[in-house]
Design goal:
mainly alpha, globular, AhpD-like, 56% helix, 190 residues
Length: 190
């Protein structure tokens, strides 16, 4: 069970649903304590996705890299279908172990991942050089989008990690200790 109770004591997660759906249902059950804030968060995420210039693959790479830093197990276990359709593979996810050295990442993806790494671990180290590198690959709007995505992934990922919504996940995501997002047992969700 998650560490935070569902808003309605009778709320039940559909145990016959796929693991990704079960995680989403559990999070909705918790967020129902503050429905207006939950709706605003959903609207924010949908607005970012609807106007995205980064694309699903880059966004998913950033999300998964930040999930590793956050140690959010439900975040690490999930792969979004839109990203898979945009070229995300488990081999590519494995390259997140050392993104600066990964031959299957583009220069733009490496720049975005460097920013995401710093945002998640040492945000005050993001300096003019980091932004100059981003500008070699992205326009100002995309850089703003990257920052907003990182803020969402760091904040919500850390919160979700503390809630421990892991009951439906493959075993390795429920184990004690550090877990990586790279592996063959990820859960693809719509």
């Amino acid at each position: 069970m998650p560490r935070v109770r569902y808003a309605e004591p009778a709320y039940v997660v559909d145990q016959t649903a796929d693991p990704g759906t079960q995680v989403s249902q559990a999070l909705r059950g918790i967020l129902a304590h503050r429905p207006d804030a939950a709706a605003a968060l959903g609207t924010f995420a949908m607005a970012l996705a609807a106007s995205s210039t980064l694309g699903p693959r880059v966004t998913e790479l950033i999300r998964l890299r930040i999930a590793f830093h956050n140690q959010c197990r439900s975040c690490k276990a999930v792969r979004y279908k839109s990203a898979v359709d945009d070229g995300l593979t488990e081999d590519l996810v494995c390259s997140l172990a050392r993104p600066a050295e990964a031959p299957d990442l583009t220069d733009a993806e490496r720049a975005a991942l460097r920013f995401a790494d710093l945002f998640a671990t040492n945000h005050l180290a993001i300096d003019d050089t980091v932004y100059a590198d981003l500008r070699d690959h992205f326009d100002e709007g995309s850089i703003v989008e990257l920052g907003l995505q990182c803020a969402n992934f760091v904040g919500m990922g850390r919160l979700a990690a503390t809630w421990a919504v892991t009951d439906a996940l493959p075993e390795r995501f429920r184990a004690v200790g550090e877990v990586t997002p790279w592996g063959s047992d990820a859960v693809v969700v719509g």
